[in-house]
Amino acid sequence: MLELKYSPLGDAAVRVSFGDSISTEVNRQIRSFCEVLKTAAPKGVIEWTPSYTAVTVFYEPLETTYHHLVSNLQNLFRKLEAFPTSKTRCVTVPVCYGGKFGPDLINVASHNNLTQEEVIEIHSKAKYMIHMLGFTPGFPYMGGMPKVISTPRLAVPRSSVPVGSVGIAGEQTGIYSLSTPGGWQIIGRTPLVLYDSNRTTPSLFEAGDYVQFCPIEKKEYEEIASLIEKQAYRLEYELIED
Amino acid sequence: MKTAIFHVKKSGLLTTIQDVGRVGYQQYGIVVSGAMDNFAHRIGNLLVGNDPTAATLEVTMMGPEIRVLDDTVIAITGADLSATIDGRAVRPWRSIYAKKGQTLAFGQPKHGVRAYIAVAGGINCNEVLGSKATYLKANMGGIDGREIRKGDILSCGEMNASHKKLSGRVLSPEIIPNYTSGKPFRVIVGPDHHAFTEKGLTTFFNEWYAITREVDRMGCRLSGTVIEHREEADILSDAITVGTIQVPASGQPIVLLADRQTSGGYTRIGTVITTDIPRLVQQMPGTKISFEKISVEKAQQLYRRQEKNMKLLKIATNTKLSKSLL
Asked: What are the GO MF terms of this UniProt record (chain B) (predicted)?
């Protein structure tokens, strides 16, 4: 059993640490802890954000105190053992690689002495775990990219990266959830909409989901994009044990 | 019901629609935003008979010029940016009757950085995820997610009482915050205090740090004696909150404010307590500030006391004696 550490993050949040390094076990515990919070959040809890090794719980100090909440969270964690680890989603993310949508695929290939086809194969074969969402709404911080395709960021960031762009920065891969400036090597684009404030759940992903990329052609990209626009696209995912 | 209330003649430096923020979506990477000085924002609302959560205009340093389109009651709170109505000085922290055709303008900033224009009925605009707060970087909330500009017509909701009843309310002088007290800002240490040397922590709590020009709604860079790390200045990206002080490898602290991202990758030496945030966001660039350690228990006591006063004010504004000092 993991030993949890509690520390205040200011006077209205408590950080619950599950360990110091990234591991599947830590991630599983974090996911279960968030599941339990969903169903049995102690008094005063407003919201929480999971990260690589911790869950930060935001609360209203008019309704509880730091020490009271910590003791409630400790009790909650004791129940975690009995809580079944739920299966997790592995979401299929269609990506049109290279060309106009992925202008840096060629950089990633040459940097790693691979062909563009090999980069696509390696990138789309792995399953990536979403550890947390941020820095822009719905942006997934993903772990698990094979090192053989890692590539440093662009020396000069682009002033605008189109929404849906799939990129590589060092050993990370990510998907731009908004059009923002950015220095990631862009290898493709997905028609999926990662963030839409008009949806009931504005973010497509949740922390704890897995992602697997699926190479598609330009024509399929257009088809999926038009289905999404008509709200007729069904997200493909499978439930997996991790 | 919506009434066209303000016609923007000049935008000012940065004027945005704000409320108490977009709460509950941080796990999806959605930034909280909301008024930088939550205290001034809420008091403004109470003075004009609104719920504290109603939307106001947040004015930064150089205020806008606004033509009033219908008789209403407004209050200016927060920074003293020399507000005038038809050229006559408007005293802050009180509710005043503004007549159709009058012009609200601002002059030289006297003290503080951010003022709030509260209007009876609250500023109206579409809500995004339950909030009207403008978050410029993601074009969210407010008017199409942007700042107010020349030509905009702003509307407001329905007033909660008559003009007569709402105007002339004055905030009791002892509740008006003093932004230039020079008192240290109180900080709850951690959670990454172990990443600093003893010397680093001592430096942080003993030296003065200047507010630099690099300050916006997202955060404020400070400059002063380098805060020494043990080894690494970077952490695995993790949660931050309003007031969190990050120290990157440069050793120069950054305080995160209303538009902070939901997570950050630099060591967090501590977090400024909730009740000190309003005074912090009112400090001008160039001002030197200092920090003092406080326990989470003490900080929460101060917060409870502030909120108790806020509640009493709310009750006072709802009574018939509302004209007297609140």
From this structure: ATP binding; hydrolase activity
Q: Do B47 and B75 fall within a single domain?
A: yes
Residue A133 touches partner B, C-beta closer than 8 Å: yes
The pLDDT tens digits of the residues spanning B272-298 come to 999 999 999 999 999 999 999 999 999
Put simply, the chain A residues between 83 and 122 with a CB less than 8 A from any chain B CB are: none
**Per-residue pLDDT at A78:** 84
What is the CA B100 to chain-centroid distance, rounded?
A: 28
CATH number at residue B239: 2.40.100.10
Domains and CATH numbers, chain A: 5-82 (3.30.1360.40), 88-240 (2.40.100.10)
**Span A54-82, pLDDT tens digits:** 999 999 999 999 999 999 999 988 877 66
Q: Is the peptide bond before B185 cis (omega within 30 degrees of 0)?
A: no
Q: Which of A5, A7, A11 to mutate to test the interface with B (most CBs of B within 10 A)?
A: A11
| Contact flag B239-A17 (C-beta cutoff 8 Å) | no
Instruction: Say yes or no: B125 and B143 in one domain.
Output: yes
Spatial neighbors of B301 by CB under 8 A, at least 6 apart, are none
Q: Would residue B325 count as lying in a domain?
A: no
Q: B87 and B39 in contact (C-beta within 8 Å)? A: no
Facing residue for B30 by CB, picked from A132, A137, A180: A137
Pairing of strands B219-223, B209-215: antiparallel
Structure tokens at A89: 């989603």
Q: Do B297 and A65 touch (CB under 8 A)?
A: yes
Backbone angles phi, psi at B274, to 5 degrees: -50, -45
The dihedrals phi and psi of A170, each to the nearest 5 degrees, come to 60, -125
Task: Identify the residue among A4, A6, A9 best suited for mutation to test binding to B, counting B beta carbons within 10 A and taking the highest.
Answer: A9
The runs of H, that is alpha helices, within B58-194 are 163-166
Q: What 3-state class would DSSP assign to A116?
A: helix
Cβ A37 vs Cβ A68: under 8 Å:
no
Give burial (CB, 10 Å; 0-12/13-18/19+) of B100: exposed
Rg (CA), chain A: 20
ipTM (interface pTM): 0.95
Residue A239: burial class (beta carbons within 10 Å; 0-12, 13-18, 19+):
exposed
